[in-house]
Design brief:
It is a single chain. The chain has one domain: Hypothetical protein YwqG fold. The protein is built from 9 helices and 14 strands. It is α+β, with helices and mostly antiparallel strands. A 10-stranded antiparallel sheet has the order 8-7-6-2-10-1-11-12-13-14. The protein has a two-stranded antiparallel ribbon with strand order 3-9. A two-stranded antiparallel sheet has the order 4-5. It is globular, with a radius of gyration of 19 Å. 37% of the residues are buried. Helix content is 20%, strand content 27%. Helix 1 packs across helix 6.
Length: 286
């Protein structure tokens, strides 16, 4: 799928307002294709899924409730910046490394304020710092240590699944949503539908409800629908953008609940220097 075809299809389907607001409902992402690899064949600092993290000396392996967290992925930002001219990655630092960790017991779903701390995002900007491959942290359950996989990056257009959430002035009903879904289904290629769907940036591939309101409310300690803070807080829901999506992946030995996905979200205002305090994680499953 590309933006031009998407825009043309929206016009043909009778959605001129969506075609004019294409920048609000279409975002480029990087699809991450994982291939199982031997850890020794991956140089320190290589982008990868699973395996063991390559960290600077002195950095601690993140923990949660007294247990080491699972290492999920590391992303070398130079691999992302190769696509900057195509309009991808401009919201991230141009250099450095990102590391992603998650609750080793997989009991963090992102639906409670107390879940904060059940994941970690580490960021290093200085590319000159030497990285050292760590041994598995003592106490990390064997099931929480995943198979190392090399990553290949491919640009992929993603679309809002519910445009009425992204365009506040949109008049929208169930029939409109069905016609919109048909447009998306008609444009998606076999490769775009294939699983697993690991993704950096763009719109997420959701299994349940849109997560941005959840990120905004729960990260501010709001879970009660009658909370008087809710209305004001929801004005900032669209500030949340997907940072990383990690699918259940047999190659890596990853399975999130019932074949679910992990979503690392970042508040747009803070993504120039990603850190855990400005992030939220959600696990959705079938």
């Amino acid at each position: 799928m590309d933006t031009t075809k998407f825009q043309a299809s929206l016009l043909a389907a009778g959605f001129p307002q969506l075609a004019q607001a294409i920048d609000k409902i279409a975002r480029l992402s990087l699809r991450l294709y994982a291939t199982a690899a031997q850890e020794a064949d991956l140089l320190p600092g290589t982008s990868k899924l699973g395996g063991l993290p390559d960290l600077p000396a002195g950095w601690q392996w993140p923990q949660w409730k007294g247990l080491p967290q699972s290492f999920i992925a590391q992303i070398r930002l130079a691999d992302v910046q190769r696509f900057r001219q195509e309009g991808i990655g401009g919201s991230l630092p141009e250099q450095g490394m990102l590391w992603f960790f998650y609750d080793a017991h997989q009991e963090t779903y992102g639906d409670q304020p107390e879940d904060r701390g059940g994941w970690s995002i580490l960021f290093l900007e200085d590319e000159q710092v030497e990285l050292q491959r760590r041994q598995a942290a003592p106490g990390l359950p064997a099931a929480a240590l995943f198979q190392a996989c090399a990553l290949r990056f491919t640009p992929e257009l993603t679309c809002s699944e519910q445009p009425a959430l992204d365009i506040s002035s949109l008049l929208w009903n169930t029939e409109d949503q069905q016609r919109y879904d048909a447009v998306i289904a008609g444009l998606e290629t076999t490769a775009e539908r294939a699983v697993p769907q690991h993704r950096l940036l763009g719109f997420p591939d959701t299994l349940q409800d849109d997560m941005r309101s959840q990120c905004q409310l729960v990260s501010h300690g709001v879970t009660d629908e009658d909370d008087p803070r809710q209305e004001e807080l929801l004005k900032g829901a669209l500030d949340w953008r997907l940072l990383l999506q990690v699918d259940s992946d047999p190659q890596a030995g990853m399975r999130w609940a019932n074949n679910g996905l992990l979503y690392y979200w970042m508040n747009q205002a803070d993504r120039a220097a990603p850190h855990v305090d400005a992030s939220w994680l959600v696990l959705q499953s079938e």
